[in-house]
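Thread title: Can someone regenerate the structure for this chain?

I was given the following input by a collaborator and told the matching structure tokens would be attached. They weren't. Posting the sequence so someone can regenerate them.
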Amino acid sequence: MILVASFMGLFDVFVVNVAAPDIQADIHTTSADLQLVIGGYSFAYAAFLITGGRLGDRYSYRRLFAIGMAIFTIASALCGLSQTPVELIVARVAQGFGAALMVPQVLALITSLFPPAERHKALAWFGVTIGLGAIAGQVLGGALVQLDLFGWGWRTIFFVNVPIGLVTVLLAERLLPDSRSAAKPQLDVPGVIGVTLALGMALIPLTLGQSQGWPWWLVAPLVASPVVLAIAARYERGLAQRGGQPVLDLSLFKARSFSAGIVVNIAVFLYFGSILLGLTLFLQRGLGLSALDAGLCFAPLGVGFAITSLVGRPLIGKYGARVVTGGLVVAFLALAGQLLDIHLSGEATTAWRIAPIFFAIGIGNGLVIPALIGASLTDVAPAKAGAGAGTLATGQQFATAAGVAVLSEIFFATIGSHPTEHSYLKAIQYVLALDAGLLVVCFVASLFMPRPRAQQAAPTPVTEVA
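Best answer:
Regenerated them for you:
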């Protein structure tokens, strides 16, 4: 049941992709509005993820899981009822905030419900759910838009969350244990504000820059964001030295598996978020496919992901980071093959030519994503595993939002104001080449991730049951 939250959280990151043309036509959104609808959710999700984990540690995993799911459900309904771009953007940010409260409790509940010997299997299922949620956002999202239930059109992708959320809240109160961290950590409000401000100063200009012509009031915060992040990091380091509990624990980076793992996590989700959006735009706008047909094109990717993520689960506990490295090689070869095929076929490219390569990409992703968190936490001390997992998840969500923002800038700048089929082909080739480069970075970083010791589960925080 708790994996429903992980699935819904990632499903709603990507479900808007296939509905984007319908949303744009219905409520007259600009390309910048669409980027904020997609990226605003991921940003709010990333910005409050660690805080959501701390609140669960301090008060109750079950309580924060239920509160987060309730906020997410209400915000989903408001997304479906939105009549203007501003209403939809605000509701999406609220949705991301709800996800940030409920999803961290999934990892915490896994640690309290499963013994160490079984925990790596549960974490693998968590990774499987993350990947399937992202892919289902593309496939099921297209089907929901095309079905047009009750005449709702694109609004169906949000309304479908409401009954699921209500049932999950009711079951959570009845079935989940009322557990929390024995440490009852403090809340680092200045740290949350500083880190969130730094990320926002980077993400918002990346999202709006191209559509606004890069005015000084967007360039200035983008340039200043590393400075703000450095100031926040210095404050966090000082807080840790004073015996506090910083939201960004810099001591985690002393662990080789974590420092290499966070590079892999960020680069993988930059690639994963950008390639899904880029291919969706290309299929619908470049090849003229409907939302359903575009969504179905991602079905082979989902099948490939499901097969390797399930078959590869026993390998994760035994080989850890080596599984990640192997999956990255497969994903790179598949992506390079797709780039070559589109380059050679040109305007003769069809969805049928792309589908087999989608399958191969899914195979690579199915090996990488389920193993990432566990492999990244191999050398992290048990007492800091919760902070480590939260930092990794925050990096993943911010990377997804940044991937969407940067991809959109490149894609829309390439197609220009009067797009043609040739301009869409050129745009998707740029995106695929960039993603191939990210996979090379991932591969190099994965070589520094150590193999886990035999039968060692991912480190976990100590919990107590109230």
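The two ends are 21 Å apart (CA to CA).
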